[in-house]
Amino acid sequence: MMAATACLGLAACEPAPDRGAEADGAAARPNSAPNSSATPPVRNVGPSAESASLAAYYRRLENDLLVRGLMRTDGGGPDTPFTDTMLARNFVQIALYDEYVSTGGQLQARTTQSRLRRWDIPVRYAAEFGPGVPTGQQAEDRANVRNYVARLARVTGHPITYDESNANFHVLFLTEDDRDNIAPRLRQLVPGITDSSIRAFQTRDRGTLCLVLAFSQGGSATYTRAVALIRAEHPDLLRLSCIHEELAQGLGLANDSPAARPSIFNDDEEFGLLTTHDELLLRMLYDSRLTPGMTEAEAGPIVRRMATELVGGPV
């Protein structure tokens, strides 16, 4: 399983709207208040055969992961120690590299060196649902997003809120049927969004569990808006796992690393929810000693000092 962020994982940078915005990587996880005028009409029929088949597939996938002892929700413990050196190394790999690149109008998985990106303006999350998402599931997902947003605010110290009236980070919960008609809404949320970004949201690859695309103005390294996709066919834990990964990656942790542990920014799916290690990564990302646009050479010495302050020895 994997996840994608725009510049996917915040990974692939591509020109977008506002005077050449940059789609900075998402976190698509492969087999790893909305404007009412833009909301598709409510359907009076049940899910399509394709959507029902996906729901059955994802139930089997979640069960398989749990049987194998994966998708842990404990945040890490004595069996997952890490040192300041490991934390600093993981930060560099996750925050200063991209997971995807845009080539020929397509997003391709390829780890490349990048620069530090994050939000300087307040982040305002809002959950939005396609007409195919059951009402009860909507209430559960909205509550989970609200609770997680409060946690992200505490961890980062950045102004982060849940605000459906003036959102700049939209979390879209969509069924397979809903995604077919999502292009107009995406163009409304991100004026000038590229066709490749829209195709990423409409992919038929069931290995893409969820993704997030974050955008910046021109060549800036500061984000101004983001849009996440979470498949509504996922069972409860997979949906919650997608919320944790995509909403955090959309803040600037664009890449995944096989060495990161305990972490959700690792495609091995050992952990399903944000860990104590990941909280430290977010805290470092929004530390005032770092600034958007920093390269690995510029940020590295500061990151190592911060990691020593936070961890010191094994945790």
What does this structure look like?
- There is one protein chain.
- The chain has 315 residues and is an alpha/beta fold.
- Helix content is 36%, strand content 21%.
- It contains ten helices and ten strands.
- It has helices at residues 17-20, 49-67, 84-95, 135-156, 176-179, 183-189, 195-201, 236-249, 276-285, 296-310; strands spanning 3-10, 22-29, 97-103, 106-113, 118-119, 123-129, 160-162, 169-174, 210-216, 222-231.
- Strands 1, 2, 5, 6, 7, 8, 9 and 10 form an eight-stranded mixed sheet that branches. The protein has a two-stranded antiparallel sheet with strand order 3-4.
- Helix 3 (84-95) packs across helix 9, helix 3 runs antiparallel to helix 10 and helix 4 packs parallel to helix 8 (236-249).
- The two termini are 27 Å apart.
State the main characteristics.
two-stranded antiparallel sheet, alpha/beta, 10 helices, 315 residues, disordered N terminus, eight-stranded mixed sheet, globular, 10 strands
Radius of gyration: 18 Å
Gap between N and C termini: 27 Å
Would you tell me the structural class of the helices and strands? alpha/beta
- Portion in strands: 15-25%
Nutshell version of this structure?
With 315 residues, the protein is α/β, with parallel strands linked by helices.
